[in-house]
Amino acid sequence: MDGPDIGWYLIVAAMLFGIGALGVMLRRSPLIVLLSLEIMLNASNLTLIAFARQRGDLTGQVFALAVMAVAAAEVAIGLGLIVAMARRRLVLDVDQASALRG
Amino acid sequence: MVVGAWICLLAPLAGALGITLAGQRISRRTAGWISTLSTLVAFGGALVALFGLWAADPSDREQVSTAYTWLAAGDFEVEVQILLDTLSSTMMLVVSGVGGLIVWYSMGYMAGDDEERRYFAYMSLFVFSMLLLVEAGNFLLLLVGWGLVGLASYLLIGFWHHRPEAVAAAKKAFVMNAIGDATFALACVLLIWETGTLEFSGVFVGVDSLSSTPVNLVALGLLGGAIAKSAQIPLHTWLPDAMEGPTPVSALIHAATMVTAGVYLLVRAHPIFEAAPDIQHLAAILGAATLLVAGAIALVQWDIKRVIAYSTMSQIGYMFLAAGIGAYGYAIFHLMTHAFFKALLFMSAGLVIHHLGGEQDIRRMGGLKDVMPRTHVAFLVGILALVGIPPFAGFWSKDGIIASALATGGALGYTLYVAALVGALFTGAYAFRLYYTVFRGSQSKYAAEHAHEGHGEGPRSMLVPVGILTVLSTIGGLVVIPGVWHPLTEWIGETAEALVDPTVAEDYETSALAVALGLVGLFLARRAFQAGRQLVTSPVIWRVLEHKLYFDELYDALFYRPAVAVSAALRRNVEEPVIERSLDEIGSGTIQVGGEVARVQSGLLRTYAVAIALAVCVLVVVFVAVR
Asked: What mean pLDDT is predicted for residues A56-78?
């Protein structure tokens, strides 16, 4: 098989996932949090496709397509929420949106 | 003739259902007529059955008629069946005949009561239950009738449900009877176990081949039922209290029919009792004890109905005595004459009570002879029949029983004989004490005030049944005359052959003694009355008798108080600390845990994300480690 070894793909994916996760955990702006989520999803997509190539099996690729559709839907809803927050002139800070505290 | 028996059984049931379903669409009077007529139809059916049986060949005088199979479990079957034989046909006649007269009388006595329809529905239900009891062809159906008469008596004793004493009396009667019902039911279970059937003929054949222990247990269970229903010592305490019910109820249930069910059971199940002679003798001994105790207590009671109630217990004691020594014919004969004269006594007492506006205390009566001449005659006839003065009804039957005790002989026979004779003395004393206090002497102030309220001695519907019973109490005993003829005892003997047969000489000797003792009682009562003092002069004895030999207090101390103490202790030590407080603690504990857990839910999105990430890490580590 051409191209680099599967390990490299996985390392890139893990790094992407780590960056995304840190972004979700550390950043307070909802836009950046959404962006980081996308990065995490794409990291998993990369893993899926890498394994699909290695095994010569199309299932992983189909799965990646499904993940993309879900990610698109999620971004649409997430951005909609952010727009709604901005319209009501709320502060764009996820730490401030804590009305569900028990 | 079997058709007659079925009509006899079903007519009162139809009456009860009709009155209940018609509700307010019929007038109170109509309800009374429906009840009376349905009972009289039952009497007609009983007559048809009796004469049919009479005309039949003697070998054909035991007819079983089955309607359908009620229960079937493997080989064991119980059918809805009636048994028509000489014993049940006689009982049917007494129950429906005397019952019909009493229901008729009720129409006058209860006139104007708010809930007459309910009353007559209950009366019809009672007559039906009693007929079911005497006609049943197996023990289970007998038990059904047995339970139903208990229910009807509960309903009727507590009929005036706005009076707390009546409600308490009804409960007492029910509970005491339930004890007997339970032992009866246990006996039935044992019979199924041992003989595999409950049908009379099958059981009586099967009982011969059993060993003595099960037979004794079965007999003991049946005896328990009989003493509870018939108010014999030691389950007798409910009967005097049951006088809280309307007077015709006292006459019907607590004199003429229901309380004699125990005697019927002893005679019906005589093969079982003959197989367990010890238990049979126990029945006789309990009967003798009851007749003495009840007779003595009756000497000091002030309530006119309670005196008659104790007299009832005493007379049923005679019947138990007779059934216990195997004089079945005389037991049923006395049951019949007792139904006549005791119903008569209750009903004429009812006339007195009705006349005096509900007063039952004999200290407030007196001198009613001139005001109520016809009632006086009826009451006097009842008293004479009760004491056993010839030729009134009680003479022939009671003396037959006492003579049978003599004929039994042995220590037991002679003891019973003496007890029965002493009982005759008591009977004479309390009966004439009652008679003198109520009817003789000068009129009391209370009686004079109420004497002229202008309704005469009572409406015709009350006087006619009393008249009929007066005639029956006078001549009803003539069906058995020792040495001349005894068709009734022979008739019963076809079903339950007597174990003893007193000779004519024994009969007349006994009669002379018993009548003499009755007259001594009369004389004592008369002298005490004229001297203006009581029959019992010793204050100690008086107090003991007034407290009914402390039976109520004894049961209170033995059963009621311990039960209350146990319940209170359980409440204090289990209910309150464990059950009630634990509920509180479960609630407050939940709230507390919830408060702690709620702090985790901070509402901060990023903390959740960190938590999820950490959890995933932990899971990954765990998965890897476990592999």
From this structure: 92
Q: How far from B365 is each of B52, B362, B387, B395, CA to CA, in Å?
A: 48, 5, 22, 28
* Contact call for A95 and B597, based on CB within 8 A: no
Q: How many CB pairs under 8 A join A and B?
A: 37
In sequence order, the 6+-apart residues with CB closer than 8 A to the CB of B613 are A21, A25
CA distance B584 to chain A (A): 24
Contacts of B452 (CB under 8 A, 6+ apart): none
By the CB < 8 Å criterion, does B452 face chain A? no
Tell me the backbone φ, ψ of residue B78, rounded to 5 degrees.
-125, 130
- Element housing B110 (H / E): none
Contact (CB, 8 A) for B16 and B128: yes
Minimal-distance CA residue of chain B relative to A99: B603
Q: What whole-number distance in Å separates Cα of residue B166 and Cα of residue B319? A: 28
| Contact yes or no for B321/B291 (Cβ under 8 A) | yes
CB under 8 Å to B82, separation ≥6 — which residues?
Answer: B2, B5, B6, B9, B64, B65, B88, B135, B136, B137
Which residues in chain B (583-622) have CB-CB distances under 8 A to chain A? 597-606, 609-610, 613
Q: Does the pLDDT at position A102 exceed 70?
A: no
Is A21 in Cβ contact with B606 (below 8 Å)?
no
> Which chain A residue has its CA at the smallest distance from B608's CA?
A25
Each residue of B567-612: pLDDT tens digit? 999 999 988 888 888 888 899 999 999 988 888 888 888 888 889 9
Residues linked to residue B80 through DSSP beta bridges, in sequence order: B68
Please report residues of B whose CB lies closer than 8 A to that of A94.
Answer: 604-606
**Which of B40, B48, B31, B51 lies closest to B12 in space, CA to CA?**
B40
Q: Indicate the residue of A24, A25, A102 with minimum beta-carbon distance to B601.
A: A102
The verdict on a CB contact (< 8 Å) between A101 and B600 is: no
Report the 3 state secondary structure along B130-141.
HHHHHHECEHHH
Chain CA centroid to CA B85, Å: 23
In terms of DSSP H, where are the helices of B136-276?
Answer: 139-157, 164-195, 200-206, 212-229, 238-241, 247-251, 261-268, 270-275
CB contact under 8 A, B610 and A100: no
The pLDDT-based confidence of B539 (bands split at 50, 70, 90) is: confident
Q: Residue B302 is encoded by which pair of tokens?
A: 């002030």
pLDDT tens-place string over residues B476-526: 888 888 877 888 888 888 888 888 888 888 888 899 999 999 999 999 999
Average pLDDT, chain B: 89
- Nearest by Cα to B231 from B258, B190, B259, B265: B259
Measured CA to CA, the distance from residue B392 to residue B470 in angstroms comes to 10
User: Which residues in chain B are closer than 8 Å to A28, comparing Cβ atoms?
Assistant: 606
Q: What is the SS3 assignment for B74-100?
A: CCEEEEEEEEECHHHHHHHHHHHHHHH
Q: pLDDT tens digits for B277-304?
A: 999 999 999 999 999 999 999 999 889 9
The DSSP symbol for B72 reads E
pLDDT value at residue B478: 87
Whether residue B453 has pLDDT greater than 60: no
Is residue B394 within 8 A of residue B385, CB to CB? The reply is: yes
Q: Contact A95/B604, CB-based, under 8 Å? A: yes
Sequence-distant (≥ 6) Cβ neighbours of residue B158 within 8 angstroms: B166, B167, B169, B170, B171, B244, B245
% residues pLDDT > 90 (chain B): 51
